[in-house]
Prior knowledge:
- This protein has two domains: 2-69, no CATH class; 71-100.
- By secondary structure, it is mainly alpha-helical.
- The protein has a two-stranded antiparallel sheet with strand order 1-2.
- Helix 2 crosses helix 4 (50-61).
- It has helices at residues 2-11, 25-33, 39-46, 50-61, 74-95, and strands at residues 14-15, 21-22.
Amino acid sequence: MFAKNSFLTALGVEVFDSGQRRWPEHVKAQAVAETLEPVSGVTARYEIMPSQLTSCRRLAKEGKLVLPAVEIDDAQKTAIQIFVREMRALLADWAAGERP
Length: 100
């Protein structure tokens, strides 16, 4: 438990003797951004219930929690570019009346 508390306090989370914690907005936002990973890993790392993470995600969807920018590597950029190119071609074919 101490190791987790050290991790959380290093992020700026206030951990009280009662075990209660006060979460800064940037830490909530980071946890939500990390949900690109499996939720169980994120909830275990932050020692929160999945419902708490869901609440933070809802805030982000409502625009009440600003998420950090996600960095992507060159391979991911290439994959995105290929996907966009293929989707444009598919949409152009669909608009021309060609259906798969």
